């Protein structure tokens, strides 16, 4: 079974600029071209973007 992808233009939740998505999957991290925010595709039907969680350092643990 192929993984579902979507192509769409959606609004950035940070700067409200347009983010063009091409063949993205759910949970993928994308970047807003306008403000540079890292965004997570939390849903693809409908397409929903949220600010991606900050990655924390694991310091080798």
Can you walk through the features of this model?
Strand 3 and strand 4 (38-44) form a beta hairpin. This protein has a single domain, classed as Rubrerythrin, domain 2, CATH 2.20.28.160. The chain contains no helices and five strands. The chain has strands at residues 6-11, 18-24, 29-31, 38-44, 47-51. The model has no long low-confidence stretch (mean pLDDT 92).
Q: How would you summarize this macromolecular structure in one to three sentences?
A:
The chain is 0% helix and 46% strand. It has 61 residues and is mostly beta strands.
Proportion of residues in helical segments: under 10%
Give the termini distance in whole angstroms: 36 Å
Strand content: over 45%
Which CATH class?
Mainly Beta
Overall tally of structural domains? 1
User: What is the ordering of alpha helices and beta strands?
Assistant: EEEEE
Radius of gyration: 13 Å
Classify the secondary structure makeup into a structural class.
mainly beta
Question: Numbering strands along the chain, what is their spatial order in the largest sheet?
Answer: 3-4-5
Q: How can the largest sheet be summarized?
A: 3 strands, antiparallel
- Total helices: the number is 0
- The average pLDDT score comes to 92
The poorly predicted ranges are none
CATH topology: Rubrerythrin, domain 2
Overall shape: flat
Q: What is the CATH architecture assignment?
A: Single Sheet
């Amino acid at each position: 079974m192929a993984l579902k992808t979507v192509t769409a233009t959606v609004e950035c939740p940070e700067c409200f600029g347009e983010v063009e998505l091409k063949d993205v999957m759910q949970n993928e991290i994308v970047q807003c071209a306008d403000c540079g925010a890292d965004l997570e595709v939390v849903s693809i039907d409908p397409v929903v973007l949220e600010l991606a969680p900050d990655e924390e350092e694991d310091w080798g643990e």
